[in-house]
Amino acid sequence: MMDAHEKIYKVLSELGYDVEFDTYTGKNSTYITYFELIEKADAGSDDSEEIIGHHFQVDVFSKDDPTDIKNKVVQALKENEFYSITCQDLYERENKIFHKAIDCYYAEYKY
Q1: Sheet with 18-21, side-by-side order of all strands
Q2: Which pLDDT belongs to residue 54?
Q3: Is a pLDDT exceeding 80 seen at residue 44?
Q4: Choice between 109 and 20, residue whose per-residue pLDDT is larger
Q5: pTM for this entry
Q6: CA 14, CA 10: separation in Å to the nearest integer?
Q7: For every residue of the chain, which 3-state class applies, written as one string?
Q8: How far apart are CA 75 and CA 54, in angstroms?
C-alpha cells in the first residue's frame, strides 16, 4: 500500500510536468512542487491511529498562465481521493512567474 507522499507524487507525476518535493531544482519554466502542511491523526481507537490526515500544498509555477495545468491537477487529485481542495492565484513578481497554490486533504487509512 502506498503512503500519502508516494500517492501524491504518483498522481502529480502522471500529468507530464516536472514534479519535485518542496523545492524545484530543474530548469523548466513550468513545474509542480508539493509539501505537507500538516499530518495528524483523524481517527483512532484503543490507542492506535486508524486514519492519518494529510494536508498538502501543491504549487504550479509557469511563465504563462497555468490555469489549464491547475485544472488538470485539481481533477487528478479529485479522481485519486484527495478532498477539500482550495486554490489561490499568486504572481511571483521577483521571478515574473505565475503561481497557483492548491491545498488538499488526503485520508490515509491504517487498517
Answers
A1: 18-21, 31-45, 48-62, 97-109, 82-92
A2: 95
A3: no
A4: 20
A5: 0.90
A6: 6
A7: CCCHHHHHHHHHHCCCCEEEECCCCCCCCCEEEEEEEEEEEEEEECCEEEEEEEEEEEEEEECCCCHHHHHHHHHHHHHCCEEEEEEEEEEECCCCEEEEEEEEEEEEECC
A8: 18
